[in-house]
Design goal:
Blueprint (H helix, E strand, L loop, with lengths): L6 H8 L14 H15 L3 H14 L5 E8 L5 E9 L2 E3 L6
Helix pairs in contact: 1-3, 2-3
Length: about 100
């Protein structure tokens, strides 16, 4: 029987086994966020790929990041979605807000 896993568990598995955990030691949340934002500017990435990259980078740095996906209704037929990362209840938004 197949088991359903949450997005954070899937990302941990995609990031590799525990041998990779801690391989990016010395990278703090702020540095990781800046690096992902700069890379996103160069590639025109939106929030989801940047949030996934940030989640993997922080996991490899030894943190326990959680990928968060949210959506909201803007009108009767319009929806908007956003992705960000939380570490210890602190939100890290990969897309710099104006």
């Amino acid at each position: 029987m197949l088991t359903r896993r949450g997005p954070s568990e899937v990302l941990r598995r995609l990031a590799g086994n525990s041998a990779y955990r801690g391989t990016a030691e010395g990278v703090d949340e702020g540095q990781a966020l800046i690096a992902v934002r700069r890379a996103g500017l160069g590639f025109g990435a939106e929030c989801l790929p940047q949030a996934i990259a940030l989640t993997c980078l922080l996991y490899r740095a030894g943190a326990a990041p959680e990928l968060v996906l949210g959506c909201r209704r803007y009108g009767p037929t319009q929806w908007g979605a956003h992705a960000w990362v939380e570490v210890d209840g602190h939100a890290l938004d990969p897309v710099e807000q104006p």
